[in-house]
Specification:
Order of helices and strands: HEEHH
Mean pLDDT: 82
Radius of gyration: 14 Å
Distance between the termini: 30 Å
Number of strands: 2
Low-confidence stretches: none
Structural class: alpha+beta
Helix content: 25-40%
Shape: globular
Number of helices: 3
Number of domains: 1
Strand order of the largest sheet: 1-2
């Protein structure tokens, strides 16, 4: 679990360096409300407009693997 928390902290620091506001949500955030839950991922909510998708992909670089093969593909972005 420590590795997961370290990853969440690292990505939030990176977002902060780029002035992107974010909030930790999901399983890692639940213990704050007294409801611990086992989780294997990090869920973040970003305050970033869809027109800034390229900026996000650039910020993440090769350190992160997108779920979609091409996250900037028009059809995928329109579905959001």
């Amino acid at each position: 679990m420590s590795e997961l928390i370290d990853s969440a902290f690292e990505i939030q620091q990176m977002l902060e360096r780029h002035s992107v506001q974010s909030a930790l949500i999901g399983g890692l955030a639940l213990p704050v409300w007294g409801r611990p839950r086992l989780t294997h991922d990090v869920d973040l909510k970003l305050l970033l407009g869809r027109d800034n998708a390229e900026l996000l992909v650039e910020m993440l670089g090769s350190d992160y693997k997108p779920v979609q093969p091409d996250p900037l593909q028009k059809n995928f972005r329109d579905a959001l």
